[in-house]
Amino acid sequence: MAVTQALALRLIRQYLMPLLDPDHWHLLHKERRATWNGIWMICAELGFLMGKSNDPLLTELRIAVEVIHSHTTLPPRTFTFPTVVEVTYFISLCNQLRMPVQSQVRLDSGLQVDPFNFCTLCWRHPLPGRKLCVEHSPSSPRRANADGQRAAAAR
Ligand SMILES: [Zn+2]
C-alpha cells in the first residue's frame, strides 16, 4: 500500500497524538492539507518542545514522526525547500534544531543556492557565478524583453 501524506498524517494523529500532552495536540493540527514538508515540520516542532522539557517520550515521538516522514519511500525522503527561500525562517529553524547553518541549499528545481548570497544591487539571488541577479545582470536573457517592466520592478 502506498503511504500518502494524508494517510501518514491521519495515522500520526490516530496513534501518536494520544501519547502527546493534550496541551500540544495543536502541533498535529496546524496543517489543514497534509504535505510531507508539513509532517517534517511536526518533527521540528517536537524538537523545539524537547528543548523546553526533558520528556523522553517527546524524543521518541519526534523520532517516530521522522521515520514515518523519511522511510515511507525509497530512497528515504528528505525535507525539500520551497523554491522561494525565506532566509529568516531558515535561520530560525536551523537555530531551533541546533543545526549548523548550511551554505548551500538545494531548491525543488535542482538549483543550489547560497541563502546568504545576494545580488549587489538588491535582495535577489545572483546568477550562478555572478554578483548580480537576473534583473540587474546586463547580459541576462530576460533583459532583452520587457525592459520597462523590469526597470519598474527593480525600482
Ligand atoms: Zn539585483
Question: Secondary structure elements and their pairing?
Answer:
Blueprint: H1 5-16, H2 36-52, H3 56-70, H4 87-96, E1 105-106, E2 112-113, H5 147-154
Antiparallel strand pairs: 1-2
Helix pairs in contact: 2-3
Folded structure, characterized:
The protein has 155 residues and is mostly helical. The protein is built from five helices and two strands; from the N terminus they run H-H-H-H-E-E-H. A hairpin with a 5-residue loop joins strand 1 and strand 2. The longest helix has 17 residues, at 36-52. The radius of gyration is 20 Å and the shape is elongated. The model has no long low-confidence stretch (mean pLDDT 82). Residues 119, 121-122, 124, 132-133, 135-136 line the site of zinc ion (ZN).
